[in-house]
Amino acid sequence: MTSSPSENTSAEKKGRPTPKRKDAQAARKISSLAPAVSKEEKKRAKDAARANRVNSRAAYMRGDESALPMRDKGPVKKFVRNYVDSRRSIGEYFLPIIFIVLAFTLIPSPIFQVGSIFLMYSVLLASVISGIILSRKLKKEVLQKFPGADIKGIGMYGWLRSTQMRRMRAPKPSIQRGETF
Description:
Largest sheet: none
Low-confidence stretches: none
Radius of gyration: 32 Å
Helix content: 55-70%
Order of helices and strands: HHHHHHH
Structural class: mainly alpha
Mean pLDDT: 88
Shape: elongated
């Protein structure tokens, strides 16, 4: 009579204790394909990546064409940025006005509270109307300066830039207010 394979394995000893689960899992995690990297090499790579990110961010904020994302690239988008940056808009003052409205709503007088809410909605409406007018002007100017250019999304791009406070715009404005370009 022949013994089954399960009887042979139980009868033979392997000569060492069964490893603990965490030790077995840790041994599986170590890949033999990955090269062994020292801590110094990892630190150097991390520092190099950080320096690269800082340099890329600085180039983006300066408006270098190579560092801009696709949504900001091209002469048409640069023209729109300069057009928006050369003038003032009510939209860029919306956020500071909202803080004033918030302060006025904390005053327990109904006149201040209703007046501040009215101020907020009137500035919002003025911002929307200003954005629509800006969008139309931008499309007309872009088609005049760049005949045949794709103007899809140009109006919204300019309007969104005009609603940001000048200091917070990215890339930073490259021209002063009132300056011609």
